[in-house]
Amino acid sequence: MLEPVNAQRAPLAGLQSLLPLSLQPTQHATRASAEAHHARIKEAIETRYAFQISAVSARWEEAESDFEEARGALGRLPDYWEPPFSYFYWALLALLAIVQTAVAKPAVEALLHLNGLRASLGAAIVAMLMIALAHWAGMLVRRFGRLGAGPLGVVATALALAVLAALIVALSYGVASVGQSAASGLAKWLYVILSLALMSVGVIAAFFRYDADPNYEELDQRRKTAHRKYENLQTRHDRECAAEDRRYARELRRNGW
User: Fold this and answer.
1) 2, 21, 11: which is closest to 243 by C-alpha?
2) Does the global pTM surpass 0.85?
3) In total, how many domains does the chain have?
């Protein structure tokens, strides 16, 4: 009758060995053996996290060093919309695109002879193009002169902005004039003003969304990401250590040690 019992206990012992050390059932005869078991668990935790924490810490220190070097050269702090505020920027662009779709839909219907869903899709494509132009224009204004080194960068940025501005005005006027061809001159110009106002909001939002130096913004984001990873890893390590300390304390109380 003992053989079946032992046969049933063997698989259970195998399953218990797969559990983390802190979850494995322990029955220690003396406080010394319990303390040794506790020390082994803490050592296992330290071993499991030591390399990860060291690697993440090294990346964080490197990112901090690069950032401090850039801050010393620029003499200022980063100036841009950080998360979660940067998410609102994309939500704002989406809202502008929806409104611009309604403005562009009459022009798409009149020019391409579409209606219903096709007209809405065509107007949405036009709207997204216009919002993208506003996004690029605002970013270029913010980073004026950074399309090249020295005077060449200033000239290149100015030319790019001129092209973007011409495209924005042309599209705004074209959408209004084609879409409101049967309306009075005042109605057409109101649509032009509305379209340009939407584009202006996009340009202004893009201006404040980004830092004037793209490399500086990237360095700031990299160091903050590395810091978050380090803190998350350290928190997990501390949580496991605290759980093992609580388990050990319960064992001591249970045995009256």
Assistant:
1) 21
2) no
3) 2
Instruction: Say yes or no: 67 and 131 in one domain.
Output: no
Looking at the fold, whether 114 and 96 belong to one and the same domain comes out as: yes
- Backbone CA torsion sign across 187, 189, 193, 195: positive
The alpha carbon of residue 189 and the mean position of all alpha carbons in its chain are separated, in whole angstroms, by 39
Cα distances (Å, whole numbers) of residue 134 to 147, 164, 250: 17, 8, 63
Domain extent at residue 67 = 32-79+214-252
With a CB cutoff of 8 Å and minimum separation 6, the contacts of 237 are: 45, 49, 53
pLDDT digits (tens, 9 = 90+) for 116-129: 888 889 889 989 99
Which tokens sit at 95?
């809202």
Whether the CB-CB separation of 196 and 165 falls below 8 Å is answered with: no
With respect to residue 19, please indicate whether it lies within any of the assigned structural domains.
no
